[in-house]
Amino acid sequence: MQPLASVNEFVIRFANVNGTGSASANNLFAKAVFRMGVPVSPKNIFPSNIQGLPTWYEVRVSERGYLGRRGGVDMVVAMNPQSFAQDLACLEPGGYLLYDSTKPLDPRYRRDDVQFIGIPCTEICRREFADPRQRLLLKNMVYIGALAALLDLEFAVLRDLVGEQFKGKEKLIAANIHALELGYQYAAEHYACPLELRVARADAVGDRILMEGNDALALGCIYGGATVAAWYPITPSTSVIDAFEKYAKRLRIDPGTGDHLYAIVQAEDELAAIGVAIGAGWNGARGFTATSGPGLSLMSEFLGLAYFAEVPVVLIDVQRAGPSTGMPTRTQQSDLFAAAYASHGDTKHVLLLPASPTECFEFGALAFDLADRLQTPVIVLSDLDLGMNDHVCDPLTWEDGREYDRGKVLSAADLDALKERFGRYLDVDGDGIPYRTYPGTHPEKGAFFTRGTSRDEYAVYTEDGEAYVRNMERLLRKFETAKSLVPKPEFRPARQETREGVIFFGTSTPAALEALDLLAAEGHHFDALRIRAFPFTAEVEAFLEAHERIYVIEQNRDGQLRKMLIIECEVDPKKLKSVRHYDGMPITARNIAGQIRALKGATVTPLRRKKTG
Amino acid sequence: MTYIRPNFRHPALPRNELGYTRRDYEGALSTLCAGCGHDSVSGAIIQACFELAIPPHRVGKLSGIGCSSKTPTYFLGRSHGFNTVHGRMPSVATGAALANRELVYIGVSGDGDTASIGLGQFAHVIRRNLDMLYIVENNGCYGLTKGQDSATADVGSASKKGVPNPYPPIDLCAMALDLGATFVARSFSGDKRQLVPLIKAGIAHRGFAFIDVISPCVTFNNTPQSTKSYDYVREHLASTGTLDFVPVRQEITADYEAGYTEEVTLHDGSVIHLYKEPDLDVHDRHAALRAIREHKEAGRILTGLLYVDPDSADLHEVLQTVKTPLRDLTAKELCPGSRALDAINASKR
Ligand SMILES: Cc1ncc(C[n+]2csc(CCOP(=O)(O)OP(=O)(O)O)c2C)c(N)n1
Ligand code: SF4
Ligand SMILES: [Mg+2]
Q1: I need a surface site. Which of A136, A484, B187, B273 has the fewest CB within 10 A?
Q2: Is residue B276 part of a domain?
Q3: Average pLDDT of chain A to the nearest whole number
Q4: Using CB atoms within 10 A of its CB, is residue A446 exposed (0-12), middle (13-18) or buried (19+)?
Q5: What mean pLDDT do residues A93-115 have?
Q6: pLDDT, tens digit, 9 for 90 and up, residues A558-571
Q7: B129-146: pLDDT as tens digits
Q8: Does B120 touch chain A (CB under 8 A)?
Q9: Ligand 2 pocket: which residues have CB below 6 Å?
C-alpha cells in the first residue's frame, strides 16, 4: 500500500483525553498551517464532560479552500489509548498514525495499509521536565513539534505563535519551545521527513481571518450597541457571553470613571434571562440573551409576549442536537420550527441565519437594528459548528459613523408636536409598525400599558374581537414589512443553464458548495440559493418559481427548512427534495453529493424489481 | 430636570411640592370586585407617590399576572406599565431597572404570582438587591382563576370552597429575610396609616424593598374559616410599632409627632421614625425572623417594618454600571469603531 501523498489537501485528526491541555496545542497546529497561507477548517468533537473522556480535533487542510467537513481521515495523532482502535479504524488506506511510543504498540492494533509513526512523547517529557503537570501539558507540544518535522511546518511560525500565546511569560515560552524542538528532533532523526503528506507555504488565505462564530456574534452585540446581556449557562452558547464580557471589559469601560457601559446578569434560568432582556428592551436599552435548544424551549412564553406586546429583544440560539438534552456537544440545525414559531397562538419571529463568523458579526449587530425597527424579537440562529469552531472568513468590517436604527420612538418634543391622540398600536404609516415611547419620556403624554392581553390601538385592554383581529392583522403586515428589511438570500448560478437548484443555509454552506463542484465535475449543474433570513423574501419565492426541482440541504431529521418553504411560500411539495444529515457531526460534501445523486437516480431511472418466474 | 405642571388647578385640592394633586397620580378605573383589598393597596401607592412628590411619569410599574397584577393600570396613569407573564415580573423589572436607573420601579405581584410560579424569580431578584419596591398583594388564593388555594394559605384555612388547606404556607417575609432582602415589611391593605409610610420608605430605600401586604379577596377567600379574611386579619394583627416617613426635602418644615424611639436614615437622607415596641431591632435579621415565628406561633400576624439595611450595595453598584442610563448611550459611546476592529482582525490572523 502506497502511503497517501498530498500537499495542502488532507484531513488530520487529533485524538486526546478531555482535560489534558491538548486543545491549545492542537489549535497551535491549525493556526500554524493558516499562517503558512493554507486555509484550514478545524472541528472540535468533544464530549459533554469536563475530564477523562475522549475528545477529537479534526483539521481539514485545503489550499483549494474547501472548508466543510470532508469525511475520512488521512492522519491521526492517537494520544488516547481509550479510542485507539476507533482512531486506527477511521484512517483512509495509506494513512498515517502518530502514536506515543513510550510503551510498545499493542500487537492487536495492526493495519498493513497504515504508516505507524512512534514518538515517545511521555518519555521525552519525563526526561526533560520535572513538574508532573508540565509533563502532561508539554507532551502535546512534543507531538506538535514532531508534526512540524513530518508535515514540514515552518518552525519559525510555531515559535511566533507560542510567543504570542504566552506573551510576557518567558519561562513558559522557553519550556514550550523546548518541547516543540524535542519532538521535532526526534521525528527528524527517526523518520524520513517530510512525509509525502505535507504542508507547503501558499498564498490562499489572503486577508481572511480565523475566528469562532460565538466570538464574532459577541463582537456584533458590542458593535450593535447591546448594553444588557442576560443568560443562563448552556453549551454551546456560553462562549457568546464569555466573549461579550471579554470585549466589554476592554471596549466598554468609561475611561474617566472605570464604570461599565454594559450590564451582564447571569440569571437563575432561561425564563429569567429572556425576561431581563425584554425588560431592557421595553425600557429603551438594547438587551439580548444567548442560549441553545433547551433554553429556547423555556423562553417561548416570553417570546410570545414580546411578539404580541411588541418589545424589541435579540435572542441568539446556538443550536445543538435535540430533542431534549439530545447530544449537547454535537451540532444540528434543528431549531428552525421552535424558533420561527416559538410560543402559543399565532406567532412568527424574524430569524437571521449566519453562515460564517463574518456574518455572525454583521447579523449580531443588525439584529438590534431590526428588533428596534420592527419592535419584535429577532432570533439569530447559529449552531455549535459555527459557534465553537474556528472558521476562515473575511475580516470584520464596520463603517465608522454608522448610527443605530432605534426605530419609531417618539421623544417628548415629538409628543408635544403631535396633533392627534397618541396611539401606541396605531398603524400610522401603513407598514404595520406603530410608534412607541420610552417610559418616563413626558409628564403628561405618551404613557401606555404594555401587556400580553388584547388591547386596542390606544393600548387600552379590550376583549372586543374586532379590535383583536385588527391588531393581529397589523402584526402580519409588520411581518410583511420585515421581508424588505432582512438580509436577502445569496444566489450562485450554475455554470450551465439548469432548471434544478439547491437551497441551504448556515453551516451547511461550505459542504454544499463543495458538493456542487463535485456534481458539476460529473456534469450535474444546479443553481444555488443560500437563505439568510426568515421571513422568506421575494428572491426566495422567485427561486422556487424558477426551478423545477430543488434539493433542500439541512442538518435535521424532519427537513424543517423544506417544510417551512412549503408552508410559507405555498410551493408544490413534490418539487422540493430533502437532503438531510443529522448525526451531530457537521454535514460533508460527500454525503450531500451522494444523496443528490441517489435522488436524481431515483427519478431518472426508476428502480424496477426484476420478476423471476 | 423640569416638568410641566398641570395648568388646571383646583384651589381646594392639596398639592405636593411639584404642584401636583393626588388626582395626578391616579390611574384608570379599577375593574376589580368591590371591596377587594388590592384596590386599597393601589390607593396607598397613589397616596405615597403623591406625598413623596415623585414626578407622576417617572415610575416604571411592573407586574405579573393575576388580579393583583392588574392593579398597575389603576394607579399612576402617566407612567408606563408592563403587565408581563405569570410569575416572571422580577426578571423584567431587572432588565428595566438596568436600562434606566433614573426611574422609580414599583412591582406589584400576587401570592400565586410570587410564591408559586414565580418563587424562583422572587428569590433571585432579592439576591440581586435590585433597586425597586416589590409589593405582594397576599390574599392566600388565586383570585383571577377563581379562588384556588395559594402557597401562602395557612394550614387549615378554607376558602369559599370550604376545603381546609393541607399544605404548610410559605412566609414570604421570612423567605425574603433569609435570602438577604435589605428592606422587609408586612402590612394589611386595611391599615393605610401603616401602609402609606411603609411604601414611601420602601421607595426611598436603595436596594430591594419588599412589602407583603395581606389583601383579602372578598369574592373567594373572605370566609370565616379563612386566615386571610378581613375579620381574621383585623383580630389577629400585631405590629412592630407605628412609623412615619420623613423625606429628605421636608425635614426642616415638617411637623411630626415627637416620641419616636428610633430613627433610621436611609441612603438618600430621608428618615424613618419608628414608634416601636422596644424588643424588635430592625437592623437584626435574625431577630426579625424570630419575631415573625413567635407571633405566628402565638396566632398573630406581625406587621410593620421588620428589617432594614440602609447602606447595602444595589445591583447597579455591584455591576458598576455608569451613572448615565444605559438606554441613553448612543453609538458614539457604545460602538468601538473600525480601528478597534482592525486590531481584532489582526489578532485573528
Ligand atoms: C403560565 C400561566 N399559567 C397559569 C395562568 C393562569 N393564572 C392567571 S392568574 C393566576 C393566579 C393568580 O394568583 P395571584 O398571583 O395570587 O393573584 P390574585 O388574582 O390572587 O391577586 C393563574 C394561575 C397564567 N396566566 N399563566
Ligand atoms: S376575585 Fe378576589 S382578588 Fe380578584 S378582584 Fe375579586 S376580590 Fe379581588
Ligand atoms: Mg392571590
Answers
A1: A484
A2: yes
A3: 96
A4: buried
A5: 95
A6: 999 999 999 999 99
A7: 999 999 999 999 999 999
A8: yes
A9: B 32-33, 36, 38, 67, 139, 143-144, 217-220
**How many CB pairs below 8 A link A and B?**
229
Instruction: Tell me which chain A residues have a C-beta less than 8 angstroms from the C-beta of B80.
Output: 437-440, 447-450
Is residue B125 in a domain? Answer: yes
Q: Hey, where are the domains in chain A?
A: 6-198, 211-393, 490-601
CB burial string B241-273: b at 16+ within 10 A, e below: bbbbbbbeebeeeeeeeeebebebebbeebbbb
The residue behind cell 373567594 is B220
Answer yes or no: are the C-beta atoms of A30 and A59 closer than 8 Å: yes
- Report helix angle A270-282 to B119-128, nearest 10: 60
| CB contact residues (below 8 A), chain A span 302-361, against chain B | 302, 305, 309
How far is Cα B220 from Cα B38, in angstroms, rounded to an integer?
14
Give residue B234's domain range: 22-319
Q: What is the pLDDT of residues A493-506, one digit of tens each?
A: 999 999 999 999 99
Best residue among B63, B159, B215, B218 to mutate for probing ligand 2's pocket (most ligand atoms within 8 Å of CB) is: B218
Q: How many CB atoms lie within 10 A of CB A17?
A: 18
pLDDT digits (tens, 9 = 90+) for A378-408: 999 999 999 999 999 999 999 999 999 999 9
As its CATH architecture, domain A211-393 has 3-Layer(aba) Sandwich (3.40)
> What CATH number has the domain bearing residue B161?
3.40.50.970
Q: Does domain A6-198 sit in CATH 3.40.50.150?
A: no
pTM summary value: 0.96
> CATH topology of A6-198 equal to that of A490-601?
no
- Give A447-482 pLDDT, tens digit per residue: 999 999 999 999 999 999 999 999 999 999 999 999
Question: Regarding predicted confidence, which is higher, A521 or B7?
Answer: A521
Give the total number of structural domains in chain B. Answer: 1
Q: How far is B275 from chain A (nearest CA, A)?
A: 36
Provide the CATH number for the domain formed by A490-601 in this structure: 3.40.50.920
Distance CA A564, CA A562 (A): 5
ipTM greater than 0.85, yes or no?
yes
Give distance in angstroms: CA of B237 to centre of ligand 3.
20
Q: Residues near A4 by Cβ (< 8 Å), separated by ≥ 6?
A: A10, A74, A92, A94, A95, A96, A196, A197
Q: Is residue A11 scored above 70 in pLDDT? A: yes
On whether any CB of chain A is under 8 Å from the CB of B53, the answer is no
What single letter denotes the amino acid at residue A131?
A: D
Q: How confident is the model at residue A48 (pLDDT cuts 50, 70, 90)?
A: confident
